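Consider the tokenized backbone below.
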């Protein structure tokens, strides 16, 4: 859609129609708007946010636990997966576990963490190798 008030008003009327037909209300407090880099200054953005009755812009956010923007560097975008696995592994190192228990823990938790992201995005081989190395060192 074009970043102008007319398009925003049209979108708002579509959302109102959806609310009327479905009986479901859109939560404006949880809604956000996303502008491209090409959208001009803050005045135009503010006018569109007011027309849509949305209070915030989406900046570096996640949706359903995944990054909205991946950008050029997938490694940076999915660094949170490595960090999450690392935090879990650090918590386990303090516990004395047998080899069998470690294996079950790794399969049940550590290998499950990146599964959803891998179903939605193609992770780089390097990132997968780094995660595998981190798990195997445990």
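A designed sequence for it:
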């Amino acid at each position: 859609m074009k970043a102008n008030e007319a398009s925003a008003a049209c979108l708002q009327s579509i959302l109102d129609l959806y609310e009327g037909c479905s009986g479901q209300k859109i939560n404006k407090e949880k809604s956000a708007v996303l502008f491209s880099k090409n959208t001009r200054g803050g005045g135009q953005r503010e006018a569109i946010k007011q027309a849509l009755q949305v209070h915030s812009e989406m900046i570096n956010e996640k949706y359903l636990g995944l990054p909205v923007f991946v950008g050029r560097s997938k490694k940076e975008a999915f660094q949170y997966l490595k960090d999450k696995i690392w935090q879990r592994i650090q918590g386990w190192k303090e516990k004395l576990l047998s080899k069998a228990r470690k294996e079950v823990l790794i399969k049940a938790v550590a290998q499950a963490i990146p599964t959803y992201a891998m179903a939605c995005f193609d992770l780089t081989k390097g990132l997968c190798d780094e995660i595998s190395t981190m798990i195997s060192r445990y």
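The mean pLDDT is 82.
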